[in-house]
Amino acid sequence: MFGIIYIVLSLLAGKELAEILLFTGKNAQEAGSRHGQHKAFCNQIWVLAAAAFGMGTLVFGWTTYMISWAASEAGAKKPLIYGNTAVLIITAVVLVLLYWKRYRKTGTVWTVADRKLISDSRAFRKECILFGSLLVFLTWIMFYVFYIRNGELYSGFSVYARFST
């Protein structure tokens, strides 16, 4: 359960950080436009989703391990518990305050850039079908290649004791 909360908070924090880099200044006004038109050449939600995952994971990992290192230097027996707990609580509080402030100011938690992430809903449906089918196929491949039988993890169908001659 905490792993799911960790991933969700990581994605939300990464989204806020990625929006700062992707949609600041001139880009915030032109988000969703190309050459003065009001339609983007692609749905920018996919760029933001990848950036949110990457930045959230990076920032959460660094922060967790920095706090855990400090806890281990202070003599903690299980320092990762302190790092994970601190990162989860701090991120949750910061996100709640950010969304509350944004909601009081604009009446919604969505930013201007958030509303323009999907510029072509017809293409977005096709992209969702493509990425959904890729997810199903890659998940099937993963469980087809890596499986557990009699308590042992197998990789493929042949078992090799050594990879050298």
Question: Describe it for me?
Answer:
The structure is a single chain. By secondary structure, the protein is mainly α. The protein is built from six helices and two strands, in the order H-H-H-H-H-H-E-E. The chain has helices at 2-22, 26-30, 45-73, 79-106, 112-115, 121-145, and strands at residues 146-149, 152-155. The chain has a two-stranded antiparallel sheet with strand order 1-2. A hairpin with a 2-residue loop joins strand 1 (146-149) and strand 2 (152-155). Helix 1 (2-22) packs across helix 3 (45-73), helix 1 crosses helix 4 and helix 3 packs across helix 4. The mean pLDDT is 83.
- Oligomeric composition of the shown chains: single chain
* Largest sheet properties: 2 strands, antiparallel
Q: Alpha-carbon distance between the termini?
A: 45 Å
Instruction: Indicate the overall shape.
Output: flat
In percent, how much strand structure appears in the residues? under 5%
Question: Would you identify the regions where 5 or more consecutive residues have pLDDT less than 50?
Answer: none
Following the backbone from N to C, one meets helices and strands in this order, namely HHHHHHEE
Strand order of the biggest β-sheet: 1-2
Number of separate helices: 6
| Rounded average pLDDT | 83
